[in-house]
What does this fold into?
Amino acid sequence: MRSLLHAPGVTHLPGVYDPLTAALAARAGFSAVHLSGAAVAALALGLPDLGYVHGTHIADRAAALTPALGGVPLLADADTGYGNALHAVWTARRYAAAGVAGLHLEDQVSPKRCGHLAGKELVDVRVAAAKIRAVAEAATGLVLVARTDAYTVTGLDDAIGRCLAYVEAGADAVFVEGVTGAAELAAVHAALPGVPLVVNRSEAAGADVFLKDADLAALGVRLVLHPVAPLLAALHAARAAYAAIAAHGTAAGVARLPWDAFTGLVGQGSALALDAQYAVEVPA
It folds into this structure.
């Protein structure tokens, strides 16, 4: 993942949520993927992204899905580090043990609110920078993305100032939540020359007009996150299937993955072949 931050172009990271979505993303040819705290809260707990999820939930989910990625690096949401600098270091170590390649750490007050909700509060920049420094000095090998939510709370100038402090503390890249427009990205890029930028394309932000990849790359953007798009698509399809069964007694009219594709995705053929290879006939 670190090499992607220094590549000349933009890399898109779709959200993955379990071994099957991880396998689908890997087969689609993505160079990296993303695991969202909001998605884990929804799928593991059936709850909104309002501080219910802990790093243990994310790490456990990551450990379950990383084998299906076949080496494709995973960037995981680390929220606020789930406490102080000590807790942030523990979180980073747990993520590294789970096979995560990188994390993003934000500067909201813990427990945080979803990045697209009003009422967010920020910790002092010195407190947030101390967490970044602690994680960087823990030497887990993880790519460290510093996220700030200051743009919609205290404005762009404060967001840029915070990013400067986080890079000084050891962040590999910065993620200014809410900034997707050319003028704002240009300001961030000018203040942080050579620092890779990360942007978010979440449906929670509404129907923004997004810049083309070439324009993003020229503004220093290297990673574009799509944290919930596949999840929303899957839920839309599931809702259609449930509605069809309820109304007609069959899902025949709903587009579905063919059964053979499903069994191929879960590795049924190779599992049966392995079972046959080691089968032993016991005399009656």
Notes: The chain has two domains: 2-228, 235-277.
